[in-house]
């Protein structure tokens, strides 16, 4: 066994193309946050170049951003054969994102970050330690199947407790 070399990492050319396209598409949200006026420019520039000029918009930037949207769509299309695409595949993530926004407070980036960390820890700790706790009074198979569900319920209990304690969320602005 001495002198045995590890096998090199191989990536299929199709997968490499998908990774490249997804990396290009993932830079779009950062760009949008940095240049929030571009959304207004796209909406107005699509109707009339005169309106785009009035709001002091660089049409080259608008067309580059539109191209990035096309790249995002292409990245999703290329990833479809690798991942199984089905209707409603983002519902779980969307609901969890809503819970995180509610817990953190609407409009608060810091609140969303803290809430995401709290929700993640609740989910991980619940899935890791809940089966052992449930095995004390349930069978092993029942405990291992019930633990993820109870972990998810704990997240909603935390959301309800935060809303009772602070209706605007942890870092939401009071009016």
Overall pLDDT, averaged? 76
Shape: flat
- How large, in whole angstroms, is the Cα Rg? 23 Å
- In the predicted model, the low-confidence regions spanning at least 5 consecutive residues are none
End-to-end distance: 70 Å
- The H-and-E topology, N to C, reads as HHHHHHH
Structural class: mainly alpha
| Count of alpha/pi helices | 7
What key phrases describe this protein's structure?
single chain, 175 residues, mainly alpha, 2 domains, flat
Task: Give me a quick take on this structure.
The protein is mainly α and 175 residues long. It is built from 7 helices and no strands.
Helices, strands, pairings?
Blueprint: H1 13-34, H2 37-47, H3 49-54, H4 59-79, H5 91-104, H6 109-134, H7 140-165
Task: Explain what you see.
The chain has 175 residues and is mainly α. It has two domains: 13-79, no CATH class; 91-165, no CATH class. Helix content is 72%, strand content 0%. The protein contains seven helices and no strands. It has helices at residues 13-34, 37-47, 49-54, 59-79, 91-104, 109-134, 140-165.
């Amino acid at each position: 066994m001495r002198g045995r070399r590890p096998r090199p990492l191989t990536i299929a050319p199709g997968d490499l193309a998908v990774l490249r396209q997804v990396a290009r598409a993932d830079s779009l949200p950062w760009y949008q946050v940095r240049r929030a006026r571009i959304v207004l420019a796209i909406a107005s520039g699509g109707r009339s170049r005169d309106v785009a000029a009035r709001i002091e918009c660089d049409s080259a930037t608008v067309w580059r951003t539109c191209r990035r949207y096309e790249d995002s769509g292409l990245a999703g299309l290329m990833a479809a054969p690798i991942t199984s695409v089905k209707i409603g595949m983002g519902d779980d993530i969307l609901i969890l994102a809503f819970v995180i926004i509610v817990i953190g407070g609407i409009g608060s980036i810091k609140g969303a970050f803290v809430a995401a960390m709290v929700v993640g820890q609740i989910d991980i700790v619940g899935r890791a330690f809940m089966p052992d706790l449930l095995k004390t009074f349930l069978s092993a198979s029942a405990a291992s199947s019930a633990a993820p569900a109870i972990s998810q319920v704990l997240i909603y209990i935390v959301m309800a407790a935060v809303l009772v304690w602070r209706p605007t969320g942890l870092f939401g602005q009071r009016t």
